[in-house]
Amino acid sequence: MGHIAYADDGLLESAGSSSQDDVDGDSEDQTVPSNGKHSHKRIIQDEIERQRKMRKPNTNKRNDISSGLVALGESLSKGIVEAANLKSSRPSSDNLENAISKTNKQLEEMSSLLKQHIDQSSAVHTALLKLLQEKF
């Protein structure tokens, strides 16, 4: 009973006492009211309720459907606005044609370099094959 007497610190009135003056928060020898187990359970329940009220509200609670739909609608509307902003910031068709022609030129250069490397690799492989055939 000592931990409960310490926990309530004289804030909870016992069933047998009529005034707060009878209960001293610092004393360890508080008496259990005459009801015994029932009042002990009541004191415990009162303390549990008091501690629950003191806790921070649980932020991990499940949201109800309506608040979930509101959040979904807000997200969708933000996405639509961002998509509209991106669409309006696209380059003009002249810039787009220039970018495509640059890309095509770069692709042609890369393909010619790739052809040269393939030809060089073929020549090296052919020479290596001749060398191996002569030795064996």
Describe the model:
- Keywords: Coiled coil.
- Residues 93-120 form a coiled coil.
- Residues 1-67 are annotated as: Disordered.
- Residues 14-33 have low confidence and may be disordered.
- The chain has helices at 2-8, 37-54, 65-88, 93-135.
- The protein is mainly alpha-helical.
- The protein has three domains: 2-54, no CATH class; 63-91; 94-136.
- The protein contains four helices and no strands.
Search tags:
68% helix; 136 residues; 3 domains; coiled coil; mainly alpha
Task: Offer a concise description of the structure.
The chain has 136 residues and is an all-alpha fold. It has helices spanning 2-8, 37-54, 65-88, 93-135.
Helix content range of the residues, please?
Answer: 55-70%
The number of helical segments is: 4
Overall pLDDT, averaged?
A: 76
Which blocks of ≥5 consecutive residues have pLDDT under 50? 14-33
Which word captures the global form? elongated
**What is the string of SSEs from the N terminus onward?**
HHHH
| Number of domain modules | 3
Give the percentage of residues in beta strands.
under 5%
For the sheet with most strands, the description reads: none
Please identify the structural class as seen in this structure: mainly alpha
Q: What's the alpha carbon Rg, rounded to whole Å?
A: 42 Å
End-to-end Cα distance, whole Å, is: 98 Å
The strand count comes to 0
